[in-house]
Amino acid sequence: MQAIGLYEFGGPEVLQVVEVPEPDPGPGELRIRVHAVGVNPTDLTFRAGGRAAQLTGQAGPYIPGVDAAGVVEKVGPECSGRLAVGDRVIAFVVPMGPHGGSYAQQIVVPEASAVAAPSHATLPEAATLLLNASAARLSLDALALRPGQTVVVVGGAGAVGAYAIQLAKTDGLAVLTDASPADKGLVESLGADTVIDRDGDVARRIRDQLAGGAPGLIDGAALDATILPAVADGGRLVTLKGWAGPAERDITIYPISSFDSATDTALFDRLRGQADEGILTLRVADVLPAARASEAHRRLAAGGVRGRLVLDFSQSRIQP
Fold this sequence. Notes:
single chain
């Protein structure tokens, strides 16, 4: 089969079409014929070598990718029967695992890592859900705010931020977020109650709205220490890029990783259901042929992408 992989870490140009053996599912695993793959910032980190230490001892090509949508092609032994050949599914893929990532025509994942695709979504739309929505859900769970409290979502127009706004409203929270003038209407449509300008001193702007500071804040823009002044004494801060402090004023920092939920079937099925209900909006920025993965990485790195870029793996051959 074909995949998009790399033999050495570096810039987008290292991505290439590669031929790899067709994977076969083992006990408790599924093989999925991939139709669409969401392109995420973690894919860029993987390509650049940010996960190299976790790939020690594995030979290339290294295949990026976490989000995937496709059709079950083969069910391995010892599966529950929850999913069957021909089912439309979405899957959470761990690219550091033995089978590599989702940038491939066929993938093998634990049965627990796959659920039915949202019934009203196209497969490109479905491929934008699991990684970012699970990060948003884990973030809100870590903050553990009570209905009626205010959560601050920094980077509300981003993939995680947008889902966090929608899930927070479902949880009964008030939402304060930042946005550029061009994105103000977007975050308001997602449910944000208060929108501040993202330029300048965001922490000060948050304090202007919340005199005591935010009881809980999701840092979707990787501001790290510079956002701490916006958090209330004894408040909680979720970070998405691994920053763990040091903190101040009894603030608790929670570095969240969606990889911790890679086999959380109940979480994935809940998110799938919320997408079906319209609680979560699946936003596709563009769909590109798989061979243009380098272009997708460049566009994502340049910033300003609203929604997810998606790679199309539905063709029988990847044409360079």
